[in-house]
Amino acid sequence: QVQLAESGGGVVQAGGSLKLSCKASGHSSITIPMGWFRQGSGKEREFVAAIGWRDSSIKYTDSVKGRFTISRDNAKDTIYLQMDSLKPEDTAVYYCAAGLRLGVNRSDYTSWGQGTEVTVSS
Q1: DSSP-based three-state secondary structure for 95
Q2: Residue 42: which residues within 8 A CB-CB, separation 6 or more?
Q3: E runs forming strands in the chain
């Protein structure tokens, strides 16, 4: 079982940037696809971005394309989510996930972090 720990959340004004990190431990994560989901208040948890063990395998949800960038450092067992041009609608708890396949559904992932809160003020 992979343990995941997110960091980097906070409060930022619209148009600003934040960089989230997710450190994996307890298992070699080199070949495990990893991703980010988010859950706004009163909303379902939704897919944001995912990355395979090769950086060329990347997926984004349409609403963040061109603004968010997912990357990973396999030597550090860490993935990142660089979030630029943030909007109030990006406000949510962001969760890191690790899974068996590079997918956009919650069921594609078997391990989850505790989440880190991102608030974007207008």
Answers
A1: strand
A2: none
A3: 3-7, 10-13, 18-25, 34-39, 46-51, 58-60, 68-73, 78-83, 92-99, 109-112, 116-121
For the record, the structure tokens of 11 come out as: 């409060």
Output the pLDDT for position 70: 96
Interval 52-62: pLDDT, tens: 976 569 999 99
| Mean per-residue pLDDT over the chain, rounded | 93
Alpha helices, H only, 5-97? none
Of 53, 45, 87, nearest to 70 by C-alpha is: 53
Per-residue pLDDT at 75: 85
Residue numbers of the chain with a pLDDT score lower than 70: 27-31, 54-56
Measure the N-to-C terminal CA separation of the chain; round to a whole number of Å: 39
What contacts 63, CB < 8 A, 6 or more positions away? 89
Tokens of 117: 């809160």
φ and ψ of 27, to 5 deg: -165, 145
